[in-house]
Amino acid sequence: MQKTGAITETARGDILDRNGKSLTGSYAADFAIISPNWLSVSEKQLLLEKNILTSLDDNKINTIKITMENQEILNELNDKTPGVFIYNKSVRYGPKALATHTVGFQGQTGIEKAFDSLLESDVKRYIITDGLSQPIAGFAFNDKKSWPWGIKLTLDKDIQKIIENVMDKRIETGAVVVMEANSGEILAMASRPNYKQFELKEYLNQENAPLVNRAIESYTPGSIFKIVILSAALEENLTDLDEVFYCSGFEKVGGNIFRCSSFEDGGHEEITLKDAMAFSCNSVFIQLGLRLGKDNILKYARLYGLGEKTFVGLPEEKEGNIPEKKEIFYQDLGNISIGQGAIGISPIQAAQMILILVNDGVFKNPILIKEIIDQDRKEQPIGLSKQKTGRILSEETCRKVKETLEAATNYGTGKRANPQNKNQIGGKTGTAEVENNNSHAWFVGYYPVKTPELVISVLVERGGSGSIKAAPVFKEIVEKITAIDNN
How many CB atoms lie within 10 A of CB 262? Predict the structure, then answer.
């Protein structure tokens, strides 16, 4: 008598890059069902010596993966005894998986959680057993083939590999987001430290929180928030790039004193607004923030989409923090004008700010989901209805802001971000002070200046100087991506 035995595999929809390449690192592997009751004493002894059985009295039916260490003995016995039954099945997560924080883990995090019901199926593969629950060699039941289905993301597997390789060399803890400048489609997104989905339990209680997707976590932005302050002041016609300010090396706001990076040198002294952005002068931007007032600062931060999720489809995404007006007092203006204090944004939101600038002030959400195909090969609506569009800044304001970002990378704090080619970039460094005298290192920018193709944000958590730590990451990523395009 035959009957259905153990389920060996349940089909699940795949998670693919923009070109249809799997991101999970799935692979086919051989497994063996060990049925001790069908083994002779000598065969049990052989398996005991290889640590496949725990004792000669072990009669429990067990399934193990075939490895380099056990394959010879198992393949030999597979041809001799019904006590060893070898079959092949797909393993969902492998060591070559990419974008692990974005893909997530089945039903628990990331895209795997967001689209769990769509990725699930009732297509199962069984082993046929006899009346004694022993596998019958050569038989399988309900081995039904299904059309490939699942979630196609905007990620590009080749670009994803590049940023992950660069991060493994340069970023112990942090995140990188790469977007297509015109569409806002995310070409790559990664977080470090990384983890292996097939060894999930090993990472659950680690202090460095490798399971956290830092690309969508909230961080103090530091000086990259000066993009918001400058945009607001220009849009409200409160200043212009050639206005001359005076930096004495510090500013006093209420009872708080805020130092500029030039403090030890006695300040920048007279400096234009354009150069104040290029050299990231805190004094000038605090003066500008006081001129704007909290209402305008908070208004333009929210126009940039800060303080709310980007709705790319990841359930773990944090909205960051843009405080309410009632939470901001006069003495707080010094902090928020330079991206400190209560301001919190994520690396994906930082990239969104640049995305808006390179699209001349038109709001664009980042896009991660490209296509959803169900088991019937029908395209399903993506359903991220909370995304918004519309102009938030004038083209003229954006042109001026970009002029300062290009100055920053030409002769200011962002010089280390320049790739070794003739194409100029624009960008802004950030060194965000956090607890215990640590600083998050930021760089956000676009490449190239003339017709932007890429928008990139880099965060090195507690990395120190944005100019020294984050800008060179941007440089290497641009160089390696453009090398692909040139081949």
Answer: 20
Query: How far is CA 291 from its chain centroid?
Result: 36
The 3-state DSSP class for residue 74 equals helix
**Rounded to a whole number, what is the largest CA-CA distance in the chain?**
93
Say if residues 123 and 148 touch (Cβ distance below 8 Å).
no
State the Cα–Cα distance between residues 152 and 119, nearest whole angstrom: 12
Axis crossing angle, helix 471-486 with helix 157-170, rounded to the nearest 10? 150
Beta strands in 228-383 (DSSP E): 244-247, 250-253, 256-259, 269-272, 362-363, 369-373
Strands (E), 35-134: 62-65, 84-91, 124-129
SS3 state of residue 179: strand
With H, G, I as helix, E, B as strand and everything else as coil, classify residue 187.
strand
Place of tokens 């664009």: 364
CA dist 188 and 202 (Å) reads: 26
Give the C-alpha separation, 402 to 373, whole Å.
39
According to DSSP, residue 22 is labeled: B
- What are the residues whose beta carbons fall under 8 Å from the beta carbon of 86, sequence distance 6 or more? 30, 31, 32, 66, 74, 75, 78
**Residues listed for the chain:** 487
| Orientation angle between helical segments 71-78 and 41-49, nearest 10 degrees | 160
pTM: 0.90
List Cα–Cα distances, 190 to 167, 197, 259, 454, in angstroms.
8, 14, 34, 16
Q: In 240-358, where does DSSP find H-type helix?
A: 273-278, 282-303, 333-336, 347-358
Q: Which long-range contacts (CB under 8 A, 24 or more apart) does 137-145 make?
A: 137/82, 137/85, 139/2, 140/87, 141/4, 142/4
What type of residue sits at position 48?
L
Angstrom CA distances, 184 to 22, 355, 369, stand at 22, 7, 11
The reply to whether omega before 315 is within 30° of 0 (cis) is no
Domain ranges of the chain: 27-93, 157-368+385-486
Q: Write out pLDDT tens, residues 352-374.
A: 999 999 999 999 999 999 999 87
**Tell me, what amino acid is at 446?**
Y
Q: pLDDT at position 9, please?
A: 63
Give the number of other CB atoms < 10 A from CB of residue 104: 25
Q: Does the pLDDT value for residue 228 go beyond 60?
A: yes
Distance CA 442, CA 473 (A): 10
The arithmetic mean of pLDDT across residues 387-391, rounded, is: 80
Helical residues (DSSP H) of 85-143, grouped into ranges: 100-103, 110-114, 116-119
Rg (CA), the chain: 28
* Class in CATH terms, 157-368+385-486: alpha beta
pLDDT at 2: 42
The tokens of 80 are what?
């001799």
Strand, helix or coil for residue 390: strand
Rounded CA-CA distance 166/160 in Å is: 10
Rounded to the nearest 5°, which phi and psi values hold at 393? -140, 155
